[in-house]
């Protein structure tokens, strides 16, 4: 009988994730897992990329200093334990003994220090630099002991170490390959990189010397991009692929009704909407951006395209976090306010701007709804279909006015806001600068008490909905659909697919 796994972010229901032995049979070794991605990963160096499609691949190549469990609680990984000073400014990590990279070199304290230096090197231009802005010093205290000293407390430091910033690359491979490291990808995760053919596949093989005894079970993992949502679903239905990383809203009921497919749903952490270049001529004033936001009926977008697979958004923090209590907080459509903002912007009859979108059905449907809604007040949105990687490059270069793409949800509110919307954020694609927003995000980042952090992020929501550096419209529920012969899959709300303890039933 088919199972629909409905999980919450705060707590996993029943024993579905806590006791896999009760739910699944004895693991089977061997086999090749076929994975369907919504986009082709544009960059695979973990210290450079900001793509969700990339990170879900990289979690299986690169081990992290710490990891998160099904409830987003920090757990040991490369570091078997750690100590935090009373002031919250020193983290001492004690590494596992005998861990090696895929090239056979040791993953020790020197390697960890090398990774921090690489990410913090301004000339390297790491997208992780913003997350590590408070790191003052990294010292090697012993072969397996390393201390990271911060200039101030950072509430999201350990969550960052469970994500991109905690992914350890081989120093020897970096030194050998330099700027071409992204073509070889040597980590210490359960699978080693074999090849990548753009727009076709990424191939990983089992790493026999993985530091977790007996894992992984699979021999190989092959990722294949299916930009077209219908093609992705059809390949899952026919068994050509075993799991897909995103489920189109319109396909939810279709997947639920298929006895050979399981649908797992948890509260989503990511945000969706319209990226805006705040320095562009078309959307360079808050009044123009506010006019666009007020035109959009977030509830109609959700109901029309996604149904129960999404909720309306008020900011970057979803109702699955401890910042926002309910999707009811999302603003309502207000055409009178939109016209008022157009008047204030000096364009009472409206204006036009190009919106870059990926050429998939769901993106086109959502963007078309935006365009129809905005046309009622004279705002002309010109849809331009562009490949995902190209959009990402243009956003980084500030060579765009507006864009609609999915980027990676993170496991702490700081990581969903500071890198993207702080003046010095590592991935400030909005090219946005606000002293008030910087102050709030910095204070929230330095706070340790969750209630204090929540209050600061609630203040930040007011700035988000005044300046509109991004037009937040909805949060997708985090959904994975997979064939029933895929066993042992642990669904973690950060949306990453981890395959170290997954197997294929015979």
From TrEMBL:
Domain Solute-binding protein family residues, every copy? 73-425
Location(s), subcellular = Periplasm
> Which Gene Ontology cellular component terms are annotated?
ATP-binding cassette (ABC) transporter complex; outer membrane-bounded periplasmic space
GO MF terms held by the record:
peptide transmembrane transporter activity
Q: Which domain of life is it from?
A: Bacteria
Q: Which Gene3D superfamilies match?
A: Dipeptide-binding Protein, Domain 1, Dipeptide-binding Protein, Domain 3, Periplasmic binding protein-like II
Q: What is its main location?
A: periplasm
GO BP terms: namely:
peptide transport
Signal sequence coordinates: 1-18
Pfam families given in the database record: SBP_bac_5
UniProt keywords (A-Z) are:
Signal
Into which family does the record put it?
Belongs to the bacterial solute-binding protein 5 family.
The protein here is known as ABC transporter substrate-binding protein
Its taxonomic path starts at:
Bacteria, Pseudomonadati, Pseudomonadota, Alphaproteobacteria, Rhodobacterales
